[in-house]
Design brief:
Blueprint lengths: L3 H68 L2 H24 L4 H32 L1 H11 L1 H78 L14 H84 L3 H16 L3 E8 L2 E11 L17 H8 L3 E13 L3 E15 L2 E10 L10 H37 L3 E6 L4 E4 L1 H10 L3 H5 L11 H13 L5 E7 L2 E11 L5 E10 L1 H37 L4 H32 L8 E4 H13 L5 E6 L6 E4 L1 H17 L5 E10 L2 E8 L33 H11 L4 E6 L3 E9 L2
Helix pairs in contact: 1-2, 1-3, 1-4, 1-5, 2-3, 3-4, 3-5, 5-6, 6-9, 7-9, 13-14, 15-16, 16-17
Protein name: histidine kinase
GO molecular function: ATP binding; calcium ion binding; phosphorelay sensor kinase activity
Keywords: ATP-binding, Coiled coil, Kinase, Membrane, Nucleotide-binding, Phosphoprotein, Transferase, Transmembrane, Transmembrane helix, Two-component regulatory system
Length: about 800
């Protein structure tokens, strides 16, 4: 029975531990279930992503296969080989991810089989047939084996697989949510049970221990005050009960002893009462007067000191607030700390947001800054590092002849040092090293003042550094955004323009409209056709706030790609929408140009090929007279040369675009070249008369004679073609210092004024008037222009519709 209270206390503690253990175990089980459910849901997302990747690889195989069937380009074949290997690989990866589900595993195996069958039995044979027999044979083989149906079947299998996996993902996500809810419920119930057990345990301890001990404490206090008749209840036989019994016995013994002492001291007390009363009165009066005087003196000194410190702190805060930059703040902080410490020299080190490992020298007082090194806050040595580590003021009495170079008196002996850390909360931001060169020592009582001043300086320096860093980051962000070619803008929910980069501003200037109207966020004249519909599309984008959008606009003659995405702040609140505009006008023109090129190439190559094939078939199937045979052979040869010239033009265009346009630079006679070209073209048309007007002194140019011959031949050929009624075609040359100018003049159709700015563009041909009926690829003048520019010359023309044209170019001479 003696240890009954101890046993009960241990039992209550054990009960609390058991309850907490049960709660934690249940919570751990719930969290584990939630984790497994979440892992299964994430695995489904990975499987869905892999299925999407397989579909993309299938589309890539189809795209490259079609591109090779259209153009037969070896580069496209290289692309096909790359994506052809990736499609079965993606299907195999999908099969490996789906092994945990029998149904999905069977579907993934079927997808893998279909992917292998598609590339092995259709795509590869089509490529081989195209390489061996040509594009036409490849297309015929592809049409015969219906590869589109196989691809569609494979895409459908991937789609069904993805649909099933998405349903599994949704079910697993719901399972994860249920597990999370159960874990939260278990945590809540366990917390409530723990609180209940703790409350009951607290009540038991208070009733069995705290309250009896409190009664004993109160009884002891009464005994201390002289109330010896005090007793406490003795209600139990445990430790507290035995303690109460012992206390009651002690109180009874003290009461008995006090009665005996009182009877003995009564007489003496009566005799000393009068003297004691008088002495007490005098002593109390003297003590009261002395205490009042001391209190007044201490209060006055304390108030004066507090007032001085408060004035110093206030003045220091005002000076820091008036500083404009970090350098001024550091100078003010160092001079104020030095004045408070009575120091003559000093240096202040502060952290630099550009450098984490070292603090830079921010300010120097009366010292030569050259020998002062940087300060390492982590792992450094010396009193400064010790002040930072201990976060306290460190005073050092040098005791040796330590000399430093000051800015006023050369070398000076430092008598003492004090190092003050600059801190904000638990963060160290700098340290001030101060020194005295006089005999007076540092007053240790100023340490608290130095720490207060250092804390003020630390706050100001940190705020200044944070502002500098923010300004720098803002400048970097602005510079990056202004360097991109796409127009970028941020529009608020109220259609107000929040930000626009330089590219967006330039784009708005090109469109001659405000930025908000250009991107559709305001009802400006953004679309000449239907501005309200244009603005309604922007409203629809804002309504679909959680998804990015992409569309294409045509405004004021420009084609723009518009991409928008919602923008949230750090708290997750919606602040607006980001808009990116990209000018794709040139790309669309290039696409159209490619289509025109295909049509032009098809037409221009088909004509000589048809002649060559037709006459070759005639020679193969009929016996002809020698004269007819010679005429046919000459026609075939002429058309073959025309076909070769067309191919050469296309190859030259490709070489120019790829910067692979070689030139052989040698001196040659310009007059001899012109005479040669006139003789060549003089016999091509009986209705045209070619004249040559050369320079008086034959000029010698430096360049590629063959390429310059190509330029002259193109100009003469155009002059003859665009003078269908015949007439005179003149070629002349004129010489000046270091330059020869060659000009070809005709009196034919001329070029319409509206078309003249496009004359030197590749594949350009006049689309209206009589000139539109003249055949050609539109490459000749573009190639001639590039050849002349590559020689360091210039090329131009003057033309009047219906009156003829004059094309000229210049070349440098020796």
């Amino acid at each position: 029975m003696r240890r009954r209270l101890t046993v009960r206390t241990l039992a209550v503690s054990a009960l609390i531990i058991v309850v907490i253990g049960i709660v934690l175990g249940g919570l751990a089980v719930g969290i584990d279930r939630q984790h497994r459910a979440g892992e299964r849901a994430r695995h489904s997302q990975v499987v869905i992503a892999t299925a999407n990747l397989t579909a993309q690889r299938l589309l890539a195989v189809q795209t490259t296969l079609r591109g090779f069937l259209i153009r037969g380009n070896p580069k496209v074949l290289a692309d096909y080989r790359a994506v052809r290997e990736s499609l079965p690989a993606a299907a195999l990866e999908l099969e490996g991810l789906a092994v945990d589900n029998p149904g999905q595993s069977r579907r993934a195996q079927e997808i893998h089989r279909q992917a292998l069958a598609y590339v092995d039995t259709y795509a590869d044979p089509v490529i081989e047939r195209t390489r061996e027999a040509g594009v036409g044979a490849g297309r015929a083989f592809a049409a015969a084996h219906d590869g589109s149906a196989r691809a569609d079947e494979l895409a459908a299998s991937i789609g069904r697989f993805g649909d099933v996996e998405r349903r599994l993902s949704e079910e697993r996500a719901k399972t994860a949510d249920v597990a999370s809810d159960r874990a939260l419920l278990t945590a809540g119930l366990g917390f409530a049970l723990c609180v209940l057990v703790l409350v009951l345990a607290t009540a038991y301890v208070a009733r069995r221990i705290v309250m009896p001990v409190g009664r004993l404490s109160a009884a002891a206090s009464r005994v201390q005050r002289g109330e010896l008749d005090v007793t406490v209840p003795e209600r139990s036989g445990d430790e507290i009960g035995r303690l109460g019994a012992a206390f009651n016995a002690m109180a009874r013994a003290l009461e008995q002893s006090r009665g005996e002492l009182e009877s003995q001291n009564t007489e003496l007390e009566m005799q000393a009462i009068e003297l004691e009363e008088r002495q007490v009165e005098l002593t109390e009066a003297n003590d009261e007067a002395r205490a009042q005087r001391d209190e007044l003196e201490v209060s006055a000194a304390h108030l004066a000191a507090e007032k001085g410190r408060a004035e110093r702190y206030g003045a220091f805060a005002d000076r820091l607030a008036m500083a404009r930059n970090a350098g001024d703040l550091a100078e003010i902080a160092l001079s104020t700390l030095a004045a408070a410490a009575g120091a003559d020299v000093g240096v202040l080190y502060t952290e630099d947001w550009r450098e984490d490992s070292r603090w830079t020298r921010a300010a120097v007082l009366a010292l030569d800054p050259a020998p002062l090194a940087e300060f390492a806050p982590a792992g450094g040595e010396g009193a400064g590092a010790r002040a930072v580590a201990t976060r306290s003021v460190v005073v050092v009495d040098t005791g040796v002849e330590l000399r430093v170079r000051t800015g006023l008196a050369g070398e000076t002996v430092v008598r003492w040092e004090v190092h003050v850390p600059l801190r904000i909360g638990d963060r160290d931001v700098g340290v001030a090293a101060l020194g005295g060169v006089t005999e007076a020592a540092f007053d240790a009582a100023e340490a608290d003042t130095l720490q207060r001043l250092a804390a003020q300086a630390a706050v100001a320096l940190t705020e200044s550094a944070a502002l500098a860093q923010r300004n720098w980051l803002s400048q970097v962000n602005a510079a990056v955004l202004d360097c991109v070619r796409e127009g970028i803008a941020l529009v608020g929910l109220d259609h107000e323009l929040v930000f626009a980069n330089t590219a967006m501003e330039r784009l708005a200037e090109r469109l001659s409209m405000p930025i908000g109207a250009a991107i559709g966020a305001s009802r400006g004249d953004a679309s000449a056709d239907d501005p309200e519909t244009y603005f309604a599309k922007w409203e629809a984008m804002l309504a679909d706030t959680d998804e990015p959008t992409a569309d294409e606009l045509e405004i004021s003659g420009l084609v723009l790609e518009r991409y928008t995405a919602p923008v949230d702040d750090d708290a997750g609140a919606r602040i607006g929408r980001l808009v990116v505009l990209r000018d794709v006008t040139r790309e669309r023109e290039v696409d159209q140009l490619k289509s025109d090129l295909m049509a032009t190439v098809s037409h221009e190559l088909r004509t000589p090929l048809a002649s060559v094939l037709g006459y070759a078939e005639l020679l193969r199937t009929r016996r002809l007279e020698p004269e007819a045979r010679d005429e046919i052979i000459a026609t075939v040869h002429r058309e073959a040369k025309r076909l070769s010239a067309l191919i050469d033009d296309f190859l030259d265009v490709q070489a120019i675009e790829q910067d692979r346009f070689p030139l052989t630079r040698e001196p040659f006679s310009v007059t001899e070249l012109l005479q040669e070209q006139v003789r060549t073209f003089a016999g091509q048309s009986v209705r045209h008369h070619l004249t040559l007007d050369p320079c008086d002194s034959p000029p010698i140019a430096v360049g590629d004679r063959g390429r310059i011959s190509q330029v002259v031949a193109n100009l003469l050929s155009n002059a003859i073609k665009y003078s269908p009624d015949g007439g005179e075609v003149g070629i002349s040359s004129s010489c000046t210092a270091g330059v020869v100018l060659v000009a070809v003049t005709d009196h034919g159709l001329g070029i319409p004024l509206a078309e003249q700015e496009h004359v030197f563009e590749k594949f350009f041909r006049v689309e209206r008037g009589p000139a539109a009926r003249v055949g050609g690829t539109g490459l000749g003048l573009a190639l001639a222009h590039e050849i002349v520019l590559a020689h360091g010359g210039r090329m131009g023309f003057e033309s009047t519709e219906g009156a003829g044209s004059r094309f000229w170019f210049t070349l440098p001479t020796e």
